[in-house]
């Protein structure tokens, strides 16, 4: 296994509600190796964005980290002060979020937005930063890059804006790129182009990537490992091939079953998991997925399953499910 770059342990995040604090991220463990791409998947609302925002101290008001650690380059990101974090954010860690707070500034020219992190983190001169900004736009495949430097975001198409955001995320040659659903709003052709782009850059720059998506089909071609989140917990974590070959958690199987397959009849495409994830503060006792799970037994409604290696072996494939582990061990 490669050297670990980021190791998140027992991360817990709470939202302040009128009824008191409600847990939204409940003891997540994640690790990302050097040069590795980790895909994080799960339905909307399962805590993917908050997890990543918390690492960069970008959580919205009323939402706070209640426990855990996030070691990055020998330091716990969760204990850094704002100044220390600003030195890492956009520098050693690049990010592409859809959140308007962290996306493009509508009244600032593209070139200036690209140059800013270079001037701030790399102490480049204005002229050098502008030249590098032009190179970055070329790198992400924007035609006529030099002319685009003076454009404002609204003058570009959605796909081009997304590329600009990726260029900003990559500006300082980060060790880690965090991409939170960076292609969700784009059509499939452009999605595929952006995935190819990140794949190529990852190889060339040797960076690690955390790519968040609710789209398992998209992540299949990109990630080395996949971590499946449900209701703020990791329910399955495995190398990508193992996850697709032998999905163990009923939730993962539900997600896989809802991927449209080429040539499948429309009825087969629409299979998906019934029900919705629990709201913060309304988590059931036991396994959070039990109320929606076709295989749930009594133990699932009383006892939270631990994330444990499948079949009790020393394997990187881990699952948090009473039933799956028993079925697999028996097989
Ligand atoms: N600004 C916010 N205020 C209140 N609740 C929020 C806010 N952002 C997220 N949440 C809640 O936290 C949970 C996790 O959100 P999020 O991390 O954005 O999910 P995901 O990225 O997986 O879709 C959701 O249930 C959502 O309702
Ligand atoms: Mg999100």
From TrEMBL:
Highest taxon above the source species: Bacteria
BP-aspect Gene Ontology terms: peptide transport; transmembrane transport
Keyword Nucleotide-binding tagged: yes
Domain ABC transporter: 6-256
Family: Belongs to the ABC transporter superfamily.
Protein name listed in UniProt: ABC transporter ATP-binding protein
Organism (species): Devosia nanyangense
Record has Transport as a keyword: yes
CC annotations in GO: plasma membrane
InterPro entries attached to this UniProt entry: AAA+_ATPase, ABC_Ni/Peptide_Import, ABC_transporter-like_ATP-bd, ABC_transporter-like_CS, Oligopep_ABC_C, P-loop_NTPase
PROSITE patterns: ABC_TRANSPORTER_1 (PS00211), ABC_TRANSPORTER_2 (PS50893)
